[in-house]
Design goal:
Pfam families: TPM_phosphatase
Domain TPM: 96-180
Number of strands: 4
Number of domains: 2
CATH architecture of the largest domain: Roll
Shape: elongated
Protein name: TPM domain-containing protein
Keywords: Membrane, Transmembrane, Transmembrane helix
Radius of gyration: 23 Å
Transmembrane segments: 42-63, 69-85
Oligomer: single chain
CATH class of the largest domain: Alpha Beta
């Protein structure tokens, strides 16, 4: 569930409060889903439609070659539409592919939001892809040399649990606060700056 205006404003305030404690620049990005996976659902529909001629051999019906072909096309189209329904679609798309697409979008967002151009390389991205239940925290070199990637994992796990319960706003706020605590310890504020916007970026 994407955040409404009030939730986005509250998140922006939390980011501003946490950034005042650290030299890091935090950016939050929320994507509905990382890919439409159309090629996957069409592939499944095509594979299953290939079974139509075999099934006709066991049914007490007689169709001309043209009728059988039209039936096969009809099955293909019907399944292609049916498999676009989200509850079905995400059962057909392999979990590894979902994670790969979401991870790729996270890295693309890191560059698009200019997190690699901050003073001291102190950019931190909190990326969420809602449909995939995917959360990742990406930190630039200025942060990574103080905080190893493994230390973000507990925050990611807690956020994923919130995401699965539909508590996106709460997940973001708690994650930003937890990141703020860690960053304030490792990269405390030495100056007041705000190089990047604090509002939630929705893709």
């Amino acid at each position: 569930m994407l955040l409404d205006h009030d939730a986005q404003s509250a998140l922006a305030r939390v980011i501003s409060e946490q950034e005042a404690r650290t030299d890091a620049e935090m950016v939050t990005v929320l994507a509905r889903q990382a890919d439409d996976y159309r090629y996957v659902t069409v592939m499944w529909a095509a594979l299953l439609s290939l079974l139509v001629p075999a099934l006709l051999l066991f049914l007490p019906v007689w169709l001309t070659p043209l009728e059988a072909l039209l039936l096969q096309w009809g099955v293909l189209l019907a399944l292609a539409v049916l498999f676009r329904l989200k509850p079905i679609q995400f059962r057909l798309v392999p979990r590894r592919l979902q994670q790969t697409r979401a991870a790729g979008l996270a890295r693309q967002s890191f560059l698009q939001q200019g997190l690699h151009r901050t003073k001291g390389a102190t950019g931190v991205l909190i990326f969420v892809s809602e449909a995939e239940h995917y959360v990742e925290i990406l930190a630039d070199q200025g942060i990574a040399q103080h905080v190893p990637d493994s230390e973000w994992q507990s925050m990611v796990d807690a956020f994923i649990a919130k995401l699965k319960n539909g508590e996106v706003a709460e997940g973001f706020q708690e994650c930003v606060a937890a990141c703020g605590d860690k960053l304030a310890n490792h990269v405390p504020a030495t100056e007041q700056k705000n190089e990047l916007p604090n509002h939630l970026v929705i893709l």
